Each structure stands twice: as structure tokens, then as C-alpha cells.
Amino acid sequence: MIEDVDLSSLTKDEFERIYDAFLKHKVIFFRKQNLSPESQLALASRFGTLEKPHPFFPHVSGFPQVSVIETERGNPPGKSYWHTDMTWQAVPPKCSVLVAQHLPDHGGDTIWLSMEAVYQALPMTVKQCLENKRAVHAVQGFVGSRFDKHDGMGLSQVEKLSKDIDAVLHPLVVQHLETGNPTLFINEQFTQCIDGEEPKESDALLASLFSFCREEAFQVRFKWEVGSVAIWDNRCTQHFAVTDYGDAPRRLHRVVVEGTQPKAFETSNT
């Protein structure tokens, strides 16, 4: 938690210290901020070039790059998955800036985990097994989610839109562009299979890795308050929205920053 800063008017020195904390801790949190859509965009722009508008998420009126993540009465969030944002893209995002607008009376926390710490904790035999392997990531993880809608014939809008979004391949272990550290780069929502493996072997390995990722030792849990802000490094984390609040209204605004092509990390470099 970083205190006593105003994210809407950071000095150069303040931002540099925040950026150092971002690289060190992977996810950083702030309380009692008052970020308008304009100031949220301006803050995110200091981390890099902004992503184009999300193809499925709704957005703040007049601000297509400010996605709305919202639960409304009669529209509960449904099942949640551990995920890394938008790994279905050939170039996944660098980071995200998420701001709480309104919240349920209880519940609705978000949990982050360090995939860098996960990789470091893997036995060397597993690390060697993962070397030079790639995984298939696809956008179909949104099918049936609260961001999906169906037309008059009952067809999924996500399925229709995603027909033009090809699956992509990413290394199972990637090297962080700035720190040089290795991280396991998979997630339950978008990672479909391991390229070149038989389905049975692929499913077994991914299931084992996903289970290992869920260890609480790798996690931090954040309780939102109105005006709270979370900024996380999408290159080396996963997160999970705790959907324990039914259809109580909950609204957050998200802005995403462009990343770079993931680079494979080789175990022999350690």
C-alpha cells in the first residue's frame, strides 16, 4: 500500500518511486484517490501507450479506453477464473490501472498472485520440462461470461466477434523485459493447451501447474474501498475476482497499457 500521494498530480520523482515499487512488488495499491476518467487515462499513460478499446467490455461514455467492470441487480458476475489480462493477444498488455467506483457492502475482494514467485518455487525438473514449450491462448475464455450477450437466435456475441481473433502462441516461461526475471506465463481463463503435446499430457501438465499457482503463499488479497486504485504488472501476475456478493452493485473502471512481445526464458540462463 502506498500512501500520501495524489495520483492525479504526481511529480516526476513521485512517479519514479511508484514505478520502482510497481516493478518490485508486481501489484501496488492506493486508497482515497479521486480519479476522473481523464485523470485515470493520464496516469495510465505514464506507464506506456494505452491499449485500444476492449472488444467485449462496455466503456465509460465518451472514454472508449476506460472499460467498465460492473455488477448490477439481476446480472451477477458468474464464475470467476484466475487470469492474466488479454493473453489471447499476440502482444498482451504491460499493466492495468483499476479504480473502484462503487462497491457492495461486503465481499468483492480481488486476489493477485506472483507468477514469478510460482516459477521460482517449481522444482528444477519441472522447469526443465517447461523449457522451449509454448502454450495456445484464445479469447474463448469470455464465452458465457457476464460480458457475453446472445442474439435473438441464442448465439453468443463473443463467439461471433472472436471468429476473427486467432489463437496465439506464447512461451510457457517468459523473461520480464525490465527486470530480466523469469515468470510462468499461463492462466486458467485463456490458456487452452500446450502446443505440440497430446491432449491428455497437455491437460495433465496444465492442471498440475494451475493447482500449484493457487498456493496462498504466492498471493495477496485486496479489500476495495471507494476510491481505491490497483496497478499491476500483467507480465508476471494473475488475478482473481472474488464473486461472493451476489448481484449487489459493484463498479470499477479499468485502463490497460500496451505491452511487448513475450520473450522466452531458458532455464539454462539461471
UniProtKB/TrEMBL annotation:
One Pfam entry for this protein is TauD
A GO molecular function annotation here is:
dioxygenase activity
The UniProt entry, under SUPFAM superfamilies, shows:
Clavaminate synthase-like
- What keywords are assigned to this protein? Dioxygenase, Iron, Metal-binding, Oxidoreductase
Name the Gene3D superfamilies on file: Clavaminate synthase-like (3.60.130.10)
What PANTHER family does the database record attribute to this sequence? ALPHA-KETOGLUTARATE-DEPENDENT SULFONATE DIOXYGENASE
Q: Which InterPro entries match?
A: AtsK-like, TauD-like_sf, TauD/TfdA-like
Top-rank taxon of the source lineage equals: Bacteria
Organism of this sequence? Enterovibrio qingdaonensis
Q: Which residues form the TauD/TfdA-like domain?
A: 4-255
User: What family does the database annotate?
Assistant: Belongs to the TfdA dioxygenase family.
Q: Which residues form the signal peptide?
A: none
What is this protein identified as? Answer: TauD/TfdA family dioxygenase
